[in-house]
Amino acid sequence: MDVVNFSKEIRRNTLRCLHSQGSGHVGGSLSIVDLLAVLYSKHMHVDPADPKMDDRDKLVLSKGHAGPALYATLALKGFFPMEWLDTLNKLGTRLPSHVNVNLTPGVDMTAGSLGQGLSAACGIAIADKLKGVDRYVYVITGDGELQEGQNWEGAMFAAQKRLDHVIVFVDNNKLQIDGATQNIINVEDIEAKFAAFGFDTQRVDGKDLEALDRAIVQAKSAHNGKPQCIVMETVKGKGVSFYETMGAGVHSTTVTDEQYAAALEELK
Amino acid sequence: MELRKEYVGELARLMRENDKIVVLDADLASAGGTKALYSEFPDRCIEVGIAEANMACIAAGLATRGFIPFIHSFVPFVTRRALDQIAVSVCYSEQNVRIVGFDPGVHTTYNGGTHMSFEDLAIMRAFCNIAVLDIVDGVQLRKALPYIVEHKGPMYIRFVRKQTDVMFGEDYEFRFGKADKLRDGKDITVIAGGTMLFDAVQAADRLEKEGYSVDLLGIHTVKPLDEQAVLDSARKTKRVLTVENHSIHGGLYGAVTEVLSANEPTLCDAVAVRDRLTQVGNLADLKRDYALAVDDIYSRAIKLIEHK
User: Fold this and answer.
1) Chain A residues whose beta carbon lies within 8 Å of the beta carbon of residue B56
2) ipTM of the complex, rounded to two decimals
């Protein structure tokens, strides 16, 4: 499957997963789908048959509420049966709203309480160094999530310890639950902030699969002792017209039978 | 010997045997003594700076990769300051992180007030699956460390950095989850946690001089509590006094009464901090002011014994 179709399939199955519950974190799941498509088709060194393989790349989905997008990706990659996608948040499920390292094959860290993922990724990167594993640790944070101060503790640490295998993606979809990020607590200039904390930074169109790929290639090849940050300009609810235009409410919203059918029609 | 010296000496030995042990500090490596490990284990000693929440999550990340991280700070900073991180990234994630708190409760003395915590046992005990240790002396700490490394799941350990009296000899055997039975008696059960065992022993001496016999249990493992030992003793004496360097809410008194109220309703009382603010002072003054002194143990024990 090429990356374009892979991203479409991830979107369709993200919505399948959310539709099984009838609602959920639609907006922030859809905004990272293009990144997940590029990562998992071209970059993530993982083995679905051996999810805990020592010599693997890791992904910390710090914005853990985007679990459904990651679950769709992992299911399509063969980490677990597609049918699991229909079990979101049902008692005893392997797929909770927010990602859990112990429940889901392919999930490398628990997240959901925002701001903790970069720190955990630093620990994973140090562990890899101690083990002599030469792999990357990817982190996906939200833009609103950067309001959590712990991110900057993690950023200082990553730079101090020269963790250049840590690659942070900021899903800059510019919305958070209570409104537009810039109207709540503005987090821009995100690039300048990470640069000031010792990161190499790039800013890309987070909907442009080729641009994402180029940015990741560049970040991976840096090897200059500096952790890497890629700010992705994204759209919450991306790929489905009525979700893209919903505003802040798309963070957590319904996926009714009608909405699901209309969305699948758009994602043909 | 200072506990921090016992701790670091034994940890160094274990780190030589086990390359999975990692030490993390938040700008208190000098105070806690772990600084001594940095030259021998430069890769496995990580200075995080003044960022305890960050430290807890870095440790959790290390643990996902099979390491056994020990994070260190004064009690309130390594618990309260990193609480949601411990809840989500450590406990909910079921990671093998060791949370080490220095100078519990009144032992904070001149750093009291802001650096003193009477709620750490209650808070940590409330998390699912975490083990909670309250250490008495250096021998117990040294003997416990090999087990602390081997234990599966998160663990919180509180101990005094500096010198305490000596409770146990070299023949002491640390048994996780088991009470140390120090004396057999029939008139009252005294259950003491951590360093309060020293005071409890002195109080027991006084009581015995007056003809009362004391069933004395030392509790290092506050969670999981040795429920059988508590029940057996309570059934025998019908009176239980807990003694702890902690708030009366949710610590050892909480743990003991949770077990007794459901299984063996027993007359209980506590020597504990009774909803008081933290403050500075020397150890003896603090113990007297918070009613944690030998006199307080003795008088509460007498009251229980004389209760009709």
Assistant:
1) 119
2) 0.96
